[in-house]
């Protein structure tokens, strides 16, 4: 397993021809901010200087089980090191919306918009309470540490983990649908595949699935707890995503500046208000007229992902309805993704062309995955929800996936639910599985 380090992490391009990006070189980032606001550049330096102390508490919270003991320890450590006022400030950050934090912290609309796009990766539109911590952590962590990509492609990480399991004597069975989790006397005993083949569990059955699938499909007779079963069926998913993969002759020629070609991510969304409108349109079942675009340029960092001299680009389109009730732009008539995905992909490319003229002429091939295509590929992505469940406060922390079950437990003994639908939520850090493994191992 090799990682490709990323120095130029994320940026935003704007309709006025300007851009801003965060690199792991503080002087570079601060200079870019100063071009918009000297006061914001000074604020950024203060935030970066304070980040190690703040990160200690936030990462401890995100890396701890949602148990009374763990929470008490986190709260005690926070109070002991920061005092009552400092602890309340941290609590306020955790409860704030992205807009509230950004508008009281930065004066430049460009800086605010660049950071706010991180909230749109899960489902924290600018005015959603509890979303401020995502732009804060992503921006500060990228500034402080940079980021890494799996060299050769994201699947290299999966292959490496699979190899570790195999070397330890484990066996991984793929292309095998689990039809049922078998239960006897209130205890999970194993799984039955669609082929009829069965596998017995010696210690536990761990289900990394969307909650609705657990009680709606895999437990034939439910969990035995009507409240839990109802909570799983009412688990709320976030708006959907479209993925567009492009094979290119060359990287985009960004109108705002050639330096954008070296960033891992380029976000395209002009303002907090535009993001809020996109979110509301998606929630109302409308195809957004100007969705938030996350443009990934992996071959700018890792050329091994494409033939020599060529590039790949992926575009994550946020946020979209799973079921289409109409088009906010009034141009697409059909109400089913199978019929509209190519037309909507053209809208996306039209938007990118305004920021990177000539992109279409560089395209060698493309593949478009609508929200329902993503669910077909991975049933956990319900309605194209890439984070497997809304992360709003009512379904987070002690309430993820439901009250009383934030510890990866279920009413069925020896059956555990893990993955992005459980605490601490979505991400590539595998935190829920890691903490559950520690729990099962007696640590």
Task: Put the structure in a nutshell.
By secondary structure, the chain is α+β, with helices and mostly antiparallel strands. It has helices at 26-34, 38-62, 68-95, 98-105, 109-116, 133-145, 155-167, 211-218, 226-233, 272-283, 298-301, 337-355, 359-362, 371-377, 431-440; strands at residues 3-6, 8-13, 19-23, 147-150, 178-184, 187-193, 198-200, 205-207, 240-248, 265-268, 286-287, 292-296, 311-320, 326-327, 363-369, 415-417.
Overview of the structural elements:
The strands form five sheets. A seven-stranded mixed sheet has the order 3-2-10-12-13-9-15, with helices on both faces. The model has no long low-confidence stretch (mean pLDDT 97). α1 packs across α2 (38-62) and α4 runs antiparallel to α5 (109-116). It is an alpha+beta fold and 443 residues long. The protein has 15 helices and 16 strands. β6 and β7 form a beta hairpin. The chain has a domain at 3-149.
SSE map:
Blueprint: E1 3-6, E2 8-13, E3 19-23, H1 26-34, H2 38-62, H3 68-95, H4 98-105, H5 109-116, H6 133-145, E4 147-150, H7 155-167, E5 178-184, E6 187-193, E7 198-200, E8 205-207, H8 211-218, H9 226-233, E9 240-248, E10 265-268, H10 272-283, E11 286-287, E12 292-296, H11 298-301, E13 311-320, E14 326-327, H12 337-355, H13 359-362, E15 363-369, H14 371-377, E16 415-417, H15 431-440
Parallel strand pairs: 2-10, 8-16, 11-14
Antiparallel strand pairs: 1-4, 2-3, 5-6, 6-7, 9-13, 9-15, 10-12, 12-13
Helix pairs in contact: 1-2, 2-3, 2-6, 4-5
């Amino acid at each position: 397993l090799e990682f490709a380090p990323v120095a130029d992490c994320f940026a935003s391009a704007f309709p006025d021809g300007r851009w801003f990006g965060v690199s792991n070189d503080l002087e570079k980032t601060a200079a870019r901010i100063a071009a918009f606001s000297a006061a914001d550049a000074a604020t950024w330096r203060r935030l970066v200087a304070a980040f190690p102390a703040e990160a200690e508490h936030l990462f401890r919270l995100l890396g701890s089980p949602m148990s009374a003991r763990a929470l008490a320890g986190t709260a005690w450590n926070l109070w002991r090191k920061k005092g009552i006022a400092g602890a309340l400030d941290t609590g306020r950050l955790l409860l704030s919306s992205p807009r509230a934090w950004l508008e009281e912290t930065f004066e430049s609309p460009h800086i605010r918009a660049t950071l706010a796009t991180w909230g749109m990766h899960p489902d924290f539109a600018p005015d959603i309470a509890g979303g401020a911590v995502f732009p804060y952590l992503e921006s500060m962590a990228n500034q402080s540490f940079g980021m890494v990509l799996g060299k050769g492609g994201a699947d290299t990480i999966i292959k490496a983990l699979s190899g570790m399991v195999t070397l330890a004597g484990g066996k991984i069975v793929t292309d095998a649908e689990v039809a049922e989790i078998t239960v006897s006397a209130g205890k999970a005993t194993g799984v039955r595949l669609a082929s009829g083949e069965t596998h017995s569990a010696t210690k536990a059955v761990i289900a990394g699935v969307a909650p609705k699938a657990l009680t709606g499909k895999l437990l034939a007779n439910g969990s035995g707890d009507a409240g839990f079963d109802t909570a799983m069926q009412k688990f709320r998913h976030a708006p959907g995503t479209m993925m567009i993969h492009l094979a290119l002759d060359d990287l985009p020629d960004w109108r705002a500046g050639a330096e954008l070609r070296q960033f891992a991510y380029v976000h395209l969304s002009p303002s907090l208000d535009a993001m809020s409108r996109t979110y509301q349109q998606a929630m109302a079942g409308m195809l957004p007229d100007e969705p938030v675009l996350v443009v990934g340029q992996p071959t700018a960092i890792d050329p091994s992902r494409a033939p020599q001299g060529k590039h790949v680009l992926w575009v994550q389109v946020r946020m979209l309805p799973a079921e289409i009730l109409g088009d906010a732009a009034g141009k697409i008539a059909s109400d089913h993704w199978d019929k509209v995905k190519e037309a909507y992909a053209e809208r996306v490319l039209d938007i990118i062309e305004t920021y990177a003229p000539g992109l279409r002429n560089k395209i060698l091939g493309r593949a478009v995955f609508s929200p329902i295509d993503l669910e077909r590929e991975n049933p956990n992505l319900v309605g194209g929800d890439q984070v497997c469940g809304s992360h709003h406060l009512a379904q987070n922390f002690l309430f993820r996936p439901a009250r009383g079950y934030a510890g990866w437990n279920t009413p069925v003994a020896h059956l555990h639910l893990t993955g992005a639908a459980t605490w601490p939520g979505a991400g590539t850090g595998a935190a829920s599985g890691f903490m559950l493994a520690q729990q099962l191992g007696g640590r």
